[in-house]
């Protein structure tokens, strides 16, 4: 049974709910690609794909608008696949289950995929409509935006013909974006030796739960807790008080999401187990007080578990704990060009024990200034090297330098003022958009990004404001009508 059939504009919401039924993890977009090509065939629209799976659907201009500029509408097909630890969901096969909650649309226990499913839905509603006024349209749907921007990286010259691009992948209604941060990932790997458990050991699993998490760009300045950091604080101190040995650490997940959950399996002598739990409970009280307002659902839990097969050697344990403690997380610098905006940041995204006796630390750095992006990566690299880890950097992606003279930004700003009676904010966004890569391939592009209000992106708390979707749609229609 459809859950969103009472919402307006129904064409857009109907397509969004249909998209929710299609599994589309990053790098596994085959099903949504097939859906888009079938949609194009059904509506007698020209469609093509490139070597990596990006889809382009073209729609002719409405009568009398054939000579207008060709406008590109752009969104990405993939979604961040995060779920609560107590939610059973297979992102490769199961549909997302949206529901209405007090003016918002959410999903049951998982990310909603409104980033960027709502952009896809808007494109399909435009393509299917028979009564909108517009010039020639190209709707571009890219793959793998969330984990590597590989669709935008692989976009070939000549695939697009338009000179104006509307990116439908931002998350703050009333704000128009004309620039974005670039990014780079830094991954450290620390080797350890497996050792047998000391005699008379007791094992306990310590867990951090209930954090908001969120987008490592949009939410990095909101004082949200990082589960890796919080858990490590306890372990670092407990290792000084007890004969504590670590068997496993599993924190965070995706590079562009703030770590919401983390757990560690630790071993202490039986004689110390009660005191360890007392210290954990004291620490829990301290964290609940520290994060009383920023993280009201924070929960620290513990449970006895079966003895593990090994613990890591003490030297590697010490290096791991100090690396996590010293590795920066959060805002590094605020912008001097756009007051109130984050300029440079870093996210300690995940800490994982992996095969072949390795601990892998995944981080992500962002900056609107290219040189400071690499400066941030260098800071993280230095910490990892000092701890004895090997370090690799991703290729990174460029930022999108704001163009204050953008014609399409002015058209969009004027359209917003006409529709809603007030000026939108025109700014740059700390999150990464694919626009910087598009500009490298098509330097003549004039671009602007806008969207409805989405909160909790990249976490199971993801939700989209219903009222702002209506405004988003009206603005898109008005802008298309005014681009000549």
Distinctive features:
484 residues; 30% helix; 11 helices; single chain; six-stranded mixed beta sheet; 23 strands; alpha+beta; nine-stranded antiparallel beta sheet; 27% strand
Low-pLDDT ranges: none
The helix content is 25-40%
Strand content: 25-35%
Radius of gyration: 24 Å
Distance between the termini: 42 Å
Profile the largest sheet.
9 strands, antiparallel
- By secondary-structure content and strand pairing, the structural class works out as alpha+beta
Beta strands, count: 23
Overall geometric form = elongated
What is the residue-averaged pLDDT?
96
Total number of helices:
11
Descriptive report:
Helices cover 30% and strands 27% of the residues. The protein is of the alpha+beta class and 484 residues long.
Note the topology.
Layout: H1 10-20, H2 30-42, E1 46-49, E2 55-59, E3 71-76, E4 98-101, E5 104-107, H3 114-128, E6 137-142, H4 150-154, E7 164-167, E8 175-180, E9 182-191, E10 194-195, E11 201-209, H5 227-241, E12 245-252, E13 262-269, H6 273-290, E14 299-304, E15 311-312, H7 314-326, E16 330-334, E17 342-354, E18 358-367, H8 370-386, E19 390-393, H9 407-420, E20 425-429, H10 435-441, E21 446-449, E22 454-455, E23 463-465, H11 466-482
Parallel strand pairs: 3-6, 3-7, 7-21, 8-20
Antiparallel strand pairs: 1-2, 2-6, 4-5, 5-23, 9-18, 9-19, 10-15, 11-13, 11-14, 12-13, 12-17, 16-17, 17-18, 22-23
Helix pairs in contact: 1-3, 5-7, 9-11
